[in-house]
Write a structure and sequence with these properties.
It is found in: Early endosome; Endoplasmic reticulum; Golgi apparatus, trans-Golgi network; Membrane. Component of a P4-ATPase flippase complex which consists of a catalytic alpha subunit ATP11B and an accessory beta subunit TMEM30A. This protein has about 1200 residues and is an alpha+beta fold. The chain has 5 domains: about 80 residues, no CATH class; about 150 residues, Distorted Sandwich (Calcium-transporting ATPase, cytoplasmic transduction domain A); about 230 residues, no CATH class; about 220 residues, HAD superfamily/HAD-like (Rossmann fold), CATH 3.40.50; about 200 residues, Calcium-transporting ATPase, cytoplasmic domain N (3-Layer(aba) Sandwich), CATH 3.40.1110. Strand 2 and strand 3 form a beta hairpin. The radius of gyration is 38 Å and the shape is elongated.
Length: about 1200
């Protein structure tokens, strides 16, 4: 009873044993002692927050940020003690930051909830109370009988009970789970396969016992007990009986299955990695810099407090006549007073920690992310899909990627196989318009028609159309359950669809059908083909299944004439050694030619049996298949005996159609210093072939293999051999191929050795990978000592784990569902878009945010250091140098917009240059723009400028107490003119102008918005100060600033001081930039100089008045400037060339780039150059 109460209250975990018992249709035992097990519901959850935990969880995550937590403490301190500034100066910005961030993160999580609701609300049909009930996917319970129709996905992990087929089988594709597009056959047990109606299923009494949920897609152990006529029949269950959530039903009208694993306990969900908060390298650097500034702040506060008490050690300064202590102050504890003064200084200097940095960063990331969606170069017109951003927190991480982990099927390839060439009897053929044309002939040549194919050629086509495991689906659903040859009298090539165990088989069977030998279906053991209009029926006697050791598959058939023949196809190395007749050497040469073209090759052969030979073969196969001991070994012996003395028929060349520009994209990533790893669930032969065709592996590369390792020792020895080969072989590049089983062994105890081999390889290919293994590989690289930034890209549910594990996850909007897209940080339609996403967008985002972070610290050092220096001149009385309004508005209004606009539109180099020169990506790798040296430079620059502000104003104005703007002597006005607020306002004015112009010096890409906010911010400061100081504000407690700014600007000395101090600050910085650019330029600066020297004289003028269509009105002036600067080498059409709206700066921008003759542009989406001569010329 107590245990039952604990279970109902949720204190006991739902699974107490290693197995679970599922009662089909939830027919529980009738005895009263049975307690039903608790299972998860069928909801899929990819979101982070709920309505109930959003506020506490989001606040917890935000206050993990050092700056947020720090300002919370400062705000509480200001509430508790008497401080020089109002609590509003800290509380208001903090509230604004927290609110903006919460709204942004809440909106992004709402999108995830919306996507989850679409999945969980999908309609399904469940058998309940003797009828078929329509309900939502989330309402499925363990034990429910679910009906799934053709082409629908399975809503939970189901044990197959029955299908519309008499034998209880069904066909499924698992492309969204393991990336394989082949057709898989699943089975039901005989006792349940007869239950094909709802009434029969309702009467079914069965219990499924199986293991608890686990992530392995290929493992399932269970049994089903069916009660018939009071007798219990027990049948074993394996992976072939389990239909996984996310897989799709094919070639079967409908099936019924019982749900055994639901929701987050399904194998697909268990292969998802828990969604954690990803933090970019820039954010980590920001936190490090904040800690350093916090130390500087504490140092300044402690030093000021100590100096205050040192100064007050003299009695005349401890209690001057004008500031007598009260009784309470005299009797207060010295320790408490010291703490109170320390906290007061802490509040006075707290603006050195820039809380507005986080607001600006959040706004920059959120607004900047729209540029990815707006980029037409990332729009895929065929599928009408644009790039989408699911998480804007990682924009800058796109510029720091060092490793790319990519899926193969659907990511690098289109998932489409195309028959290209074949070799028959030593003659090469290619397919042209459904005809086989011999090499050297054209379609119109005499004797080129396939109608003349005879002998070996026809036998080859029949072998290809008969030796396979292809299934057929017809548009008419009745064809599946009726006579499979009912179409024979009215055969139509348009109503038939092939499903195959491998995409190669499907491509080959479709090719033979186009040529004239069509596979038309099977009925039991009868296989039918249509050979050039004539139907032929063969009896299928035996199938010798494919296995990775033999690397071939065979069928034994009885021909219409009664003869027995073996057809076999497989890899070259698996067929040619056993061939004794046919054009062996010519075929071998043709296979090598096909492979060099990147085609997937298969060799086809046959063997004719005499009646005596077939009797012997049949006995051997039957004995091996029925053996209870060592069945696999006996089958291998029988297969080897049968598949010999072969007659070679020919070979095929099939192309796995790659996505457009995959090879160029991988090469661009390689030039950018990014290593590409391919992780796939496919067989290693298939994976290697695609790697070679897409340029991941080069033909000249030394391919190393770590395959089929069976023990730790064997794996370790092979790794050592590979490491030795890498050292001994004087080959520039190595490639590594590793399978899933060997990888598990390598990661168990030999991680360091495995990583050493991998890092010395230019490309790594991991095949036969389970989804969680993909995530483990990514984690292995992430946690290595170098801590590289990783990116994972895939299109199926099997890629979700690695997408979530990597620093940046990208989903491909492919044909395998939307799981990868929903769980990714970014989504694109094609792999080729990855190049621009990283090389252009990543580059821009990183340089923008890196400068933003450094600049914020710089301008806050400039802001607070004069406040610290001022304490030396006011007896450390905690008197503020600036008015409280200036304190509040400095970061919010006066200096906020220029850096925000800069961080949205800045471009160091034109986008086309970045794409044509991928090596520029290396200049920003390893967080180089946020290195400690760069950070130190900006910090010291801030301190230098602050000293110049303070002491420049002090020296230039402090001694000049008589000279006014009109030259009059006004000593009586000295206090008004040069008091505390006047001096502070002068320092503040110089500071606002200097930090704004400093950002202008850093800006390379000027748009009208940059001009507007840069000069507008300075103008706004002057206008606001005149307005603020020119009126007596009734709601203010004091009127300290009344007429101060007007009086200051009336002084010629003040104007002189402002100009001199600003020039003194910025001139050395400008000179340093010029010297470094000429004496020690970076690759990026060289590219700037190259493009500028050839295009700037024209484009900078053209950009002012270039019309969207037609000729520019400024062409004469532009051409004249080119001639004066000796830069006009050719007449270039700058308005007719591909001008378009510049998505980065919001203006029309010239797209044509003139490169030097020895640096051609690759064809990676870069517009071709226009050297047409119709430019306007004088």
């Amino acid at each position: 009873m107590l245990r039952w109460i604990r279970q109902q209250l949720g204190f006991d975990p739902p699974h107490q044993s290693d197995t679970r018992t599922v009662y089909v249709a939830n027919r529980f035992p009738q005895h009263g002692h049975y307690i039903p097990q608790r299972f998860a519901d069928n909801r899929i959850i990819s979101s982070k927050y709920t309505v109930w935990n959003f506020v506490p969880k989001n606040l917890f995550e935000q206050f993990r940020r050092i700056a947020n937590f720090y300002f919370l403490i400062i705000f509480l301190v200001q509430l508790m003690i008497d401080t020089p500034t109002s609590p509003i100066t800290s509380g208001l910005p903090l509230f604004f930051v927290i609110t903006v961030t919460a709204i942004k993160q809440g909106y992004e999580d709402w999108l995830r909830h919306k996507a989850d609701n679409e999945v969980n609300g999908a309609p399904v049909f469940v058998v309940r109370s003797g009828s078929l009930v329509k309900t939502k996917s989330k309402n499925i319970r363990v034990g429910d009988i679910v009906r799934v129709a053709k082409d629908e996905t399975f809503p939970a992990d189901l044990v197959l009970l029955s299908s519309d087929r008499a034998d209880g089988t069904c066909h499924i594709t698992t492309a969204s789970l393991d990336g394989e597009t082949n057709l898989k056959t699943h089975f039901s047990v005989p006792e349940t396969s007869v239950c094909q109606s709802v009434s029969q299923l309702e009467a079914l009494q069965a219990v499924v016992e199986c293991q608890q949920p686990e992530a392995d897609l290929y493992r399932f152990v269970g049994r089903i007990t069916v009660t018939q006529h009071g007798e219990e029949i027990v049948r074993p269950l394996g992976p072939e009986n389990l239909l996984l959530r996310g897989a799709r039903l094919k070639n079967t009208k409908e099936i019924f299955g019982v749900a055994v694993y639901t929701g987050m306990e399904s194998k697909m969900a268990l292969n998802y990695k828990c969604k954690s908060q990803k933090r970019s390298a820039v954010e980590k650097s920001m936190n490090t810099f904040l800690i350093i500034y916090l130390v500087i702040l504490l140092f300044e506060a402690i030093l000021s407090t100590i100096l205050k008490y040192a100064w007050q050690a003299e009695e005349k300064w401890d209690e001057p006549f004008y500031n007598q202590k009260t009784e309470q102050e005299k009797n207060s504890s010295p320790i408490l007073k010291f703490i109170s003064d320390f906290l007061a200084f802490l509040v006075l200097y707290n603006f050195i920690i820039p809380i507005s940095l986080y607001v600006t960063v959040e706004m920059q990331k959120f607004l900047g992310s729209f540029f990815i969606g707006w980029d037409l170069d990332l729009y895929h017109e065929e599928s009408d899909q644009k790039a989408q951003v699911n998480t804007s927190d990682l924009n800058e991480e796109l510029g720091q990627v060092e490793y790319v982990f990519t899926d193969k099927t659907g990511t690098l390839t289109e998932n489409e196989m195309q028959f290209r060439e074949c070799s028959i009897n030593g003659i090469k053929y290619r397919e042209v318009n459904g005809k086989l044309i011999p090499e050297g002939m054209t379609e119109d040549s005499p004797d080129s028609s396939t109608a003349h194919l005879m002998g070996e050629e026809l036998l080859f086509l029949k072998a290809v159309s008969l030796c396979h495991t292809v299934q057929i689906s017809y548009d008419q659903p009745d064809c599946l359950v009726g006579d499979p040859f009912s179409h024979a009298n009215g055969f139509s090539s348009n109503n038939m669809e092939y499903y195959a165990s491998s995409p190669d088989e499907k491509a080959l069977v479709e090719a033979t059908k186009r040529i004239g030998v069509a596979f038309t279906g099977t009925s039991g053991d009868i296989v039918e083909i249509k050979s050039f209009g004539k139907f032929e029926k063969y009896k299928l006697l035996h199938v010798l299944e494919f296995d990775p050791n033999r690397r071939r598959m065979s069928v034994i058939l009885q021909t219409p004439s009664g003869g027995k023949v073996l057809f076999t196809k497989g890899a070259e190395s698996a067929i040619l050694p056993f061939a004794t007749s046919g054009e062996i050497e010519k075929t071998r040469l043709h296979v090598d030619e096909f492979a060099l073209k990147g085609l997937r090759t298969l060799v086809v052969a046959c063997r004719h049996f005499t009646p005596e030979e077939y009797i012997d073969v049949d006995k051997r196969l039957t004995a091996a298949r029925t053996a209870l001991q060592q069945r696999e070994e006996k089958l291998q012996e029988a297969f080897s005996y049968i598949e010999r003395d072969l007659q070679l028929l020919g070979a095929t060349g099939v192309e796995d159609k790659l996505q457009d520009k995959v090879q160029e994209t991988i090469e661009a990533l390689r030039l950018a210093g990014i290593k590409v790893w391919v992780l796939t669930g496919d067989k290693h032969e298939t994976a290697i072939s695609v790697s070679l065709s897409c340029g991941h592996f080069h033909r000249t590369m030394n391919i190393l293999e770590l395959l089929q390792q069976r023990s730790d020792n064997e794996c370790a020895e092979q790794l050592r051999r590979l490491a030795r080969r890498i050292k001994e072989d004087h080959v520039i590049q190595h490639g590594l191929v590793v399978d899933g089983a060997s990888l598990s062994l390598a990661l168990r105890e030999h991680e360091k050795l495995f990583m050493e081999v991998c890092k010395n390889c230019s490309a790594v290919l991991c095949c036969r990978m389970a989804p969680l293994q993909k995530a483990k590989v990514v984690r292995l690289l992430k946690t290595s000592p170098e801590k590289p930034i990783t990116l994972a890209i895939g299109d199926g549910a099997n890629d979700v784990s690695m997408i979530q594990e990597a620093h940046v996850g990208i989903g491909i909007m492919g044909k395998e569902g939307r799981q990868a897209v929903r769980n990714s940080d970014y989504a694109i339609a094609r792999f080729k878009f990855l190049a621009k996403l990283l090389l252009v967008h990543g580059h821009f985002y990183y340089i923008r945010i890196a400068t933003l972070v450094q600049y914020f610290f710089y301008k806050n050092v400039c802001f607070i250091t004069p406040q610290f220096l001022y304490q030396f001149f006011c007896l450390f009385s905690q008197q503020t140098l600036y008015d409280s309004v200036y304190l509040t508005l400095y970061n919010i209004c006066f200096t906020s917009l220029p850096i925000l606009v800069y961080s949205l539109f800045e471009q160091l180099v034109h986008p086309h240059v970045l794409q044509s020169k991928p090596a520029l990506y290396r200049d920003i790798s390893k967080n180089s723009l946020l290195s400690f040296g760069t950070f130190l430079y900006w910090t010291l620059l801030g301190f230098c400028h602050a000293f110049i502000f303070f002491f420049g104003s002090y020296i230039l104005m402090g001694e000049d107490t008589t000279l006014m703007g009109n030259g009059q002597i006004l000593r009586a006005n000295r206090q008004l003119m040069f008091g505390n607020w006047t001096f502070g306002t002068l320092v503040f004015t110089v500071m606002v102008i200097t930090v704004t112009l400093k950002l202008a010096l850093e800006t390379h890409f000027w748009t009208w918005m940059n001009h507007f906010v840069t000069w507008g911010s300075i103008a706004f400061y002057f206008i606001f100060s005149l307005f603020y100081g020119g009126i007596i504000w009734p709601f203010l407690h004091t009127q300290d600033m009344y007429f101060v700014f007007v009086q200051l600007l009336s002084s010629g000395s003040a104007w002189f001081a402002i100009i001199i101090i600003v020039i003194t600050c910025l001139f050395p910085d400008a000179m340093k930039k010029v010297m470094y650019r000429h004496l020690k330029p970076t690759s990026t600066q060289k590219s700037q100089s190259l493009s500028a020297s050839q295009t700037q004289a024209l484009s900078c003028v053209e950009s002012l008045c270039c019309y969207q269509h037609g000729q520019s009105g400024c062409s004469r002036l532009a051409h004249l400037l080119e001639q004066m600067t000796v830069q006009c080498k050719a007449s270039v059409n700058n308005c007719h060339a591909s001008s378009r709206s510049n998505r980065w700066g919001g203006r029309q921008q010239q797209e044509t780039i003139i490169m030097s003759s020895d640096e051609p542009l690759p064809s990676l989406g870069v517009k071709s150059m226009d050297y047409s001569s119709d430019c306007y010329s004088p």
